[in-house]
């Protein structure tokens, strides 16, 4: 092997090394893009799972008769209250007329209050 062949071989190896460096840079950039996209998809997937869980809970409540609004019995109490009667049991007021149709916070709590 003469000096010229040896030099050409080194030139070829150096060129192959540059090409490999370019390929490695491209692969690294693509890997970074894939990792970022994966993180985005994981976050979106988590949000969708939470939304699905909420929708399933809402559906389950509706099937159990617990609507987003008032239940049938609370609607009946609301109707009685709007007609001017107490629906609370404070001081045995249930069923008695509200004086001058004044609001009663106890009745409103019975109708609209949260129940466990």
TrEMBL record:
Its cofactor is Zn(2+). It comes from the Bacteria. Residues 24-65 form a coiled coil. InterPro entries: YabA (IPR010377). Binds 1 zinc ion per subunit. It is found in: Cytoplasm, Nucleoid. Keywords: Coiled coil, Cytoplasm, DNA replication, DNA replication inhibitor, Metal-binding, Zinc. Zn(2+) binds at residues 86, 88, 104, 107. Belongs to the YabA family. Involved in control of chromosome replication initiation. Inhibits the cooperative binding of DnaA to the oriC region, thus negatively regulating initiation of chromosome replication. Inhibits the ability of DnaA-ATP to form a helix on DNA; does not disassemble preformed DnaA-DNA helices. Decreases the residence time of DnaA on the chromosome at its binding sites (oriC, replication forks and promoter-binding sites). Tethers DnaA to the replication machinery via the DNA polymerase beta sliding clamp subunit (dnaN). Homotetramer. Interacts with both DnaA and DnaN, acting as a bridge between these two proteins. This is Replication initiation control protein YabA. It comes from Ligilactobacillus faecis. The lineage of its organism: Bacteria, Bacillati, Bacillota, Bacilli, Lactobacillales.
């Amino acid at each position: 092997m003469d000096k010229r062949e040896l030099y050409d071989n080194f030139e070829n190896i150096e060129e192959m090394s540059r090409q490999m460096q370019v390929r490695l840079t491209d692969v690294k950039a693509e890997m970074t893009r894939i990792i970022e996209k994966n993180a985005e998809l994981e976050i979106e997937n988590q949000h969708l799972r939470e939304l699905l869980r909420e929708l399933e809970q809402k559906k389950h409540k509706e099937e159990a008769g617990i609507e987003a609004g008032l239940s049938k019995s609370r609607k009946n109490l609301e109707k009685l209250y709007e007609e001017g009667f107490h629906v609370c049991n404070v001081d045995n007021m249930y069923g008695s007329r509200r004086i001058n149709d004044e609001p009663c916070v106890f009745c409103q709590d019975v109708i609209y209050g949260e129940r466990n």
